[in-house]
Write a structure and sequence with these properties.
Blueprint: H1 24-35, H2 40-50, H3 56-65, H4 70-79, H5 83-95, E1 103-106, E2 109-112, H6 117-134
Antiparallel strand pairs: 1-2
Helix pairs in contact: 1-2, 1-3, 3-4
Length: 136
């Protein structure tokens, strides 16, 4: 959708580690540590391939696989510096009615779970029509 509607669609990604998955919150924090070095999305994608292997050692190994310095990455992860940011995302998600992942919002319209590309296209087109209708 970003490629199809480059000037009209913006992606805002929020963390929502599920409570029943013990490794999800550390994994979310690890992705943010990778983001410090410009590798957030590569690390994020690797986590989805590797799940549920999210021990501390696994998380550091994934960073090394991406060429991130393991010691600096481990220090970031161990510091917990992103814990509050991840938990803030979780609170915002709950307030917006998120209870499952993935959940997407397109101008307030909620799409839950894996969806076909057509569902996103339709939601974006509806949002654009609504925006056009509100313009004077």
């Amino acid at each position: 959708m970003l490629a199809e509607f480059p000037d009209q669609v913006r992606l805002a990604y929020k963390d929502f580690p599920l409570d029943f998955h013990a490794g999800a919150e550390p994994a979310a924090m690890a992705a943010r540590c990778a983001g410090e070095r410009g590798r957030y999305w590569e690390y994020h994608d690797l986590l989805f391939v590797a799940q549920p292997a999210f021990t501390r050692a696994d998380l550091v190994t994934y960073a090394a696989r991406l060429g991130l310095p393991p010691e600096a990455f481990a220090a970031c992860l161990d510091s917990g510096q992103y814990r509050d940011a991840v938990r803030t995302d979780m609170r915002e998600g709950r307030a917006a009615g998120v209870s499952a992942t993935p959940t997407f919002f397109i101008n307030g319209r909620r799409l839950v779970g894996s969806q076909p590309l057509g569902a996103f296209r339709e939601a974006v087109q509806d949002a654009l029509r609504d925006a056009d209708a509100k313009r004077p």
